[in-house]
Design a protein that fits this description.
Blueprint lengths: L3 E3 L4 E3 L7 H42 L2 H4 L4 H21 L8 H22 L4 H30 L4 H27 L4 H36 L1
Antiparallel strand pairs: 1-2
Helix pairs in contact: 1-3, 1-7, 3-4, 4-5, 5-6, 6-7
Keywords: Membrane, Transmembrane, Transmembrane helix
Protein name: Intracellular septation protein A
Organism: Anaerotignum lactatifermentans DSM 14214
Length: 229
């Protein structure tokens, strides 16, 4: 029989049922304290992430060359803002690695994706081949970053709200669908420009919906952890 030794009370017990109540209470208190400490860290940084998505969305609009024109000052400002926000987003994910290690990977890949995206704009590559060479790794890095971010959110929520945790995993699947749809849309241009335009419009709307849902989820997460702490 696997007996456990209690140094404080100089006794042994065979299972948790035989553990003295005072020790059970101590274990529960220790776990609760740890959860509160984790919630405090998560609540702080997730709240910042929530507010960071707002300038990110604004930057996305301002850096859309179809809306403002690539030569305009608004486009340049939007592009710079997008890069800065992208790097900050990754930096803010890093402190949460103490709660969930996947946040560290998400942060690193977010920063790398933002830096590569910056390089693509600074170099101003015109060749489709070079755009593909630089753009494809940027896309892959971004996907990896989102994978680890969404799965990190799901992991830390598991002990607090399992249903909410599953929602992040579902959102990741829809995110993949949208990205795949955008890629397919660009290929459809070779067949039908009109169809490609319609698909791009549809998946662009889908991207906006995903961003809004992510914003709502981050707000709810931050609120949940801040209240728990």
């Amino acid at each position: 029989m696997d007996e456990r030794y209690d140094e404080k009370n100089q006794g042994t017990w065979a299972n948790d049922a035989q553990m003295p109540d005072i020790l059970k209470d101590g274990n529960i208190l220790a776990k609760e304290t740890a959860k509160k400490e984790q919630a405090e860290v998560l609540g702080k940084w997730l709240w910042i992430l929530f507010w960071l998505i707002i300038p990110s969305a604004i930057a996305g609009i301002l850096s859309n060359e179809n809306l403002v024109g690539k030569e305009s000052g608004v486009y340049i400002f939007g592009t710079l803002l997008s890069m800065v926000v992208g790097i900050l987003y990754g930096v803010i994910l890093l402190p949460m690695r103490g709660v969930e290690e996947k946040y560290r990977i998400a942060g690193i890949f977010s920063i790398l994706a933002a830096v590569l995206s910056m390089g693509l704009e600074v170099i101003q590559v015109e060749s489709p081949l070079m755009v593909l060479v630089i753009g494809l790794p940027t896309l892959i890095l971004g996907l990896i970053a989102k994978y680890y971010e969404f799965h990190s959110h799901a992991a830390v929520l598991r002990e607090f709200d399992l249903e909410f945790s599953q929602k992040w995993l579902t959102l990741w699947k829809w995110y993949c669908v949208i990205i795949a749809g955008m890629i397919v849309s660009t290929l459809v241009v070779l067949i039908s420009f009109l169809l490609a335009a319609l698909l791009i419009l549809a998946f662009t709307i889908g991207t906006a919906v995903i961003a809004i849902v992510q914003l709502v989820y981050l707000y709810k997460m931050a609120k949940l952890f801040r209240q728990y702490a």
